Structures are given as C-alpha cells and as structure tokens.
Amino acid sequence: MTKRVLIAGFTGAMGQKAINLVNSLSDFKIVAGLSPSAENDPQKYNLPEDAQIFNSLDEISDNLTDIWIDFTLPKAVYNNVKFALTHHISPIVGTTGLSDGQEAELIEISKEENVGGIIAPNFGISAVLLMKFAKEAAKYFPDVEIIEMHHADKKDAPSGTALATAKMIAENRPAHQTAPDEVETLENVRGGDYEGIKIHSVRLPGYVAHEQVLFGGTGEALTIRQDSFDRQSFMSGVKVALEKVDQLNELVVGLENIL
What we know:
Strands 3-2-1-4-5-6-12 form a 7-stranded parallel sheet, sandwiched between helices. By secondary structure, the chain is an alpha/beta fold. The chain has helices at 13-23, 74-86, 100-113, 125-137, 160-170, 235-244; strands spanning 3-8, 28-34, 52-54, 67-70, 90-93, 117-119, 143-150, 192-194, 197-203, 209-217, 220-228, 251-253.
C-alpha cells in the first residue's frame, strides 16, 4: 500500500532534497506541500502535478496524508507537529528549535492519540554515531566542550544536534563546570552552557553542518568530529524514518532509537 506524504517546508533546500527522495521511492507518494509563501504550481517545485499546495495549516483537509515530513523553521515546527499528531498523521521532523518542554508535550499528545513519529536533531548517520560515541566517551572524559559549525542562514543556535549531543553526554557524567574559576574578559566568550557543558556555535558561509566534541583529561585529549558536506547526506536517515515510522506508536526523539 502506497503511503501518502505531505512535506512542510518543501521550498527550502532540505525540503527539495526530501521531494527528490520521496519521488524516488515506489511505496511513497507526495500528495501535498505546506509553505507560507509557495505559489500554487506543484511542478515548479518538482512536486507531482496532482499534489496540493497549502500556505497555512487551516487549509489542510482531514484524511489527506499518512506521513508529515517537516523541514520548516523553529517558530513553526511546534504547531506543525501538534497539528499532525492531533490529525493522526505520523510526523518525521528534521526541524530543530523545539524546547524540552515542547518535546515533552508533543510526546504526551502522541501517546494520547496513539500516533508514532520521530524528531531527529540530525538525520545524518555520521552525526548519530558521533552522539553515540560521545555519550560513551563521557564516562571516561567528564570534561568536555562542543563546537558546532553551520551555514550562515541557520536560524537557531546552538544546533539541535549539538544540544542533543550535550544531553546525551550529560546522562553519562556528573554535572559540573570545567575550569570554574575562569574570568570572561569578553562577555559570552565561553559559549552557552548545558549542565556545565560549554557549547560554541559558528555560523559562516561555505559550511553545511559540522560538529566537534572535545574531551580533555590528564595528559591526553580526545576529539570526535563529523562533517556533512552536502544536504543529500541527511536523506539516508529520512529514508530509514519513512520506512519505520509506521512501526511506532508514539513520538520518539533521535534517529538512533529506530536504527
């Protein structure tokens, strides 16, 4: 049975990659797209000619689609995912910027509605492995900092991947400050702080998505790094999510939970 797919944010770079992916899969069909500024011309965006285009949530009819792929903006993602869940549509979410409280609320809604879905801070396999390895290393190197580097147009900082990495590391080490007696002579020079883990965000043209996790110990150091040089690298994770989302009965956070 062919699964129907709606892509929110289909006009953006990641949305276009998602369109190409779904169009290449025989068991999935794009039936709609959501974007506030899109014109009503499906073929302009490489959508099937019979796909519907919506500019707002209230235009979307019931029983239209089975799966909701979201590559939108931090300001829109919460309402989008809540809409999908309450309309019994399984969301696959690559948009970052949700707070812990919003994620918890959406997970609770998914349980109440018995709707599966996935929120992935990163769909790149290299990023998922970096988080997994960093969590393991934290048992042995509790002093750690994160540097994430992204393209200049990224709207949120830190990245969802960096924040997810910090959360996973925090599960495996006692919360504490590294170098607690430091003095900042330039405000915020030490970056953001998650339970004593410093996070530094770089935004520059030419970058796509990159992360380094730096561990320091007595007389030694460990650096774990991943680089995404092309957005196409994220599509392997999206494909996995498409194939497995119907096996879930609630919203899960992290691609590693369905691999």
